[in-house]
Design goal:
The complex is a heterodimer. Helices cover 71% and strands 3% of the residues of chain A. Chain A is an all-alpha fold. The chains are: A mainly alpha, B mainly alpha. The interface between A and B is large, with 46 and 47 residues.
Chain lengths: 580, 71
């Protein structure tokens, strides 16, 4: 079974990333789209159970392994790479496009990896390539946030690697398989690394730190890949780990609380990634077939609507140069199409009937209800209220309505609108025809979203959330503040750490170098050729010809000869070995 | 918000109440037997979220924008 399939789907994206920079400028964006379409085609045409294996030392790497779970995640990753490519058609630099392709490739790589070594390789590639999407915004803030992002992810990667090594040593296999709950130290370490990428508090601060500072199109890719690839790994390896229910519900509410305080529109959306991933994590924790299907479906839906929301916020930033609620307002007349498309995303994330959030969020909540986690059910409903409140009401109200701002938006590039329309189409499509998604879900559990009780509770929740918002909306106005989060733990002490560890060490080495240099100088004078001194005695010119200090140039010619001799020896040895 | 906006919202709410009564379903959870439970939950939940978060913000979470003097 060396290779039942010609190529793993991510190979096209990596190939695209390699050839993109040498293509003529005009062809780069089309090539981006072509490679993402090709990879999507292969996600679909590779038969189930197919494997692509290569030998690696005494192990066998499974670079690509196809089953239904991987196929659903692979499909949505490839689809969003394409839609993001359309959105960024005119606004992405070549560097960003290369990084985005590598990022998409690594997300697919994680999704199809059959062993931990392959998984880890793509995990790290994902961290590095996504960092560039933050840096490419080229502001001082984004550079700093990017470095923090990278360091935190390298920490998460080390947890993962430690877990993998421990697991391999203990079991002798690198193959990926599900862990029993509370299995072993290695499982906990791996869970730590994955939880960091899934942005489970307190390991989540990198997300809200970096995403709002990424490039306009880069944030779209960021919102789709890292957290959802981690959700995939959770479904694959940690189904039924009870602790994930508690953490998932906590996450869902954590994001909601912070979104009240956030002023930057992309920060609000970033906090709501955490909130939405909370549903998925809780679904993994419940661990029934229905809940795992729910997690998979919700990840699929979430990638679509969250990308759409980030696209809408990106247009605002791109056309006005502003992203804070306190500096926005009254833009509806200037960009009605963007508003309409954004609202499709907002309706989807809020779980409006006929949009895709309704058909997937309901699955997770129903699974929790079926398994009798009543408190979890109510808290997830509360998180739903918060989701509609921020993404569906606060953000659009203070951006496009409320008081007129001084912002003068430029024209929206058509490619951005096309990108948004593609994603909005799918948000509505899966909401109207959920079976298109359900029939591909990996586990065997059926769910009917359009039932009277489900519609009743959704309608009541949404209508009264809206009324509450309208009454108290002035309390939600943006404020010129930032909110402390767990990144405080590594940002606030950074200056002290830098001074005590980096700067003091630097000062120590500087001092040591100065002392050494002085000693050497003195020694060269003292131990130098005594002849000039004696000559000085005879000529009665004390110190006339004494070398004042070590003169490096004087020592160079002899070194040249030594190096030449060594090289010649090498050459001779090489010639001899060839001749033999 | 024009009057007909409010009218349609009230209509929707009334419709949902009607559906709840007209088509009784198995009382799976304690809240299934409370009529209009999710109306109250939505309204109060929203209030709780706004004021709880703002209180936390005022308490210690919200800081000046130049709070971090990053390197």
């Amino acid at each position: 079974m060396i290779s039942e399939l010609p190529v793993p789907p991510w190979l096209f994206l990596i190939g695209g990333a390699l050839i993109l920079p040498v293509l003529p400028k005009l062809l780069r964006s089309p090539a981006f789209l072509l490679t993402s379409l090709l990879s999507m085609a292969f996600v679909w045409f590779i038969p189930e159970g197919a494997r692509f294996e290569v030998p690696f030392a005494s192990y066998t790497l499974i670079l690509c392994q196809m089953d239904q779970l991987s196929r659903v995640f692979g499909t949505i990753f490839a689809l969003i790479a394409f839609a993001g490519g359309v959105y960024g058609f005119r606004v992405q630099s070549t560097g960003e496009q290369v990084a985005a392709l590598l990022y998409a490739a690594s997300a697919l790589g994680v999704t199809f990896a059959g062993d931990y070594v392959t998984l880890f390789f793509f995990w790290e590639l994902m961290a590095v390539s996504s960092t560039y999407l933050v840096w490419a915004r080229r502001t001082v803030e984004s550079q700093r946030a990017g470095i923090r992002y990278l360091l935190v992810h390298l920490f998460g990667g080390s947890l993962l690697l430690a877990g993998i090594l421990l697991h391999t040593v203990k079991t002798g296999t690198i193959l990926i398989s599900a862990f029993e709950p509370d299995a072993s130290a290695s499982a906990w370490l791996i869970l730590g690394g994955v939880a960091l990428n899934a942005a489970i508090p307190p390991l989540h601060a990198w997300l809200v730190d970096a995403y709002p500072r990424a490039t306009v199109a880069g944030a779209v890719f960021l919102s789709a890949f890292t957290t959802k690839a981690a959700v995939y790994v959770l479904v694959r390896i940690f189904p039924g780990w009870d602790i994930l229910i508690a953490f998932g519900v906590l996450m869902a509410l954590y994001g909601v609380v912070y979104a009240v305080l956030a002023n930057d529109i992309r920060e609000i959306l970033a906090y709501h990634i955490i909130s939405q991933v909370g549903y998925m994590v809780a679904g993994v924790g419940i661990g029934t077939e229905m809940s795992l299907n729910g997690t998979t479906a919700h990840a699929f839906s979430h990638i679509l609507y969250k990308a759409l929301l980030f696209m809408g916020a990106g247009v605002v930033l791109h056309t006005t140069g502003r992203s804070k609620l306190t500096e926005l307002g009254g833009l509806a007349r200037a960009m009605p199409a963007v508003l309409a498309l954004y609202m499709v995303g907002a309706f989807s994330i809020s779980g409006f009937p006929l949009f895709n959030g309704f058909i997937s969020k309901g699955m997770v909540v129903s699974a929790a209800a079926e398994a009798h986690f009543e408190i979890a059910v109510l808290l997830l409903h509360l998180a739903s209220v918060g989701t509609f409140l921020h993404t569906g009401l606060k953000l659009p109200y203070f951006t496009w309505f409320a008081e007129e701002s001084t912002a003068l938006p430029t024209k929206t590039p058509p490619s951005m609108l096309v990108g948004m329309s593609i994603v909005a189409f799918f948000c509505a499509l899966f909401g109207i025809a959920p079976s298109l998604l359900y029939r591909h879900l990996p586990f065997n559990a059926s769910f009917e979203p359009y039932t009277i009780p489900h519609l009743v509770e959704t309608t009541q929740l949404l209508v009264f959330t809206f009324m509450s918002f309208w009454v108290f909306r002035r309390h939600l106005r943006g404020e010129f503040t930032i909110s402390l989060d767990t990144d405080w733990l590594y940002r606030k002490p950074a200056r002290v750490v830098n001074r005590s560890v980096v700067l003091s060490a630097g000062a120590f080495f500087d001092a040591a170098e100065r002392i050494a240099e002085t000693v050497v100088k003195q020694l060269t004078i003292i131990l130098g050729n005594p002849w000039p001194r004696t000559r000085g005695i005879f000529q009665h010119e004390w110190g006339a010809n004494v070398p004042a200090a070590f003169e490096p140039n004087a020592a160079r010619p002899p070194m040249e000869k030594v190096i030449a001799l060594v090289l010649a020896c090498f050459l001779l040895a090489a010639l001899l070995s060839v001749a033999r | 918000m024009r009057p007909w906006h409010w009218m349609s919202l009230v209509l929707l709410a009334a419709l949902s109440l009607f559906a709840e009564f007209a088509m009784p379903h198995d009382a799976e959870h304690w809240w299934s037997v409370v009529p209009g439970f999710f109306m109250l939950f939505g309204f109060v939940g929203c209030l709780v979220i706004i004021f709880f978060s703002k209180a936390l913000g005022k308490l210690f979470l919200q800081q000046d924008e130049d709070y971090y003097d990053d390197l």
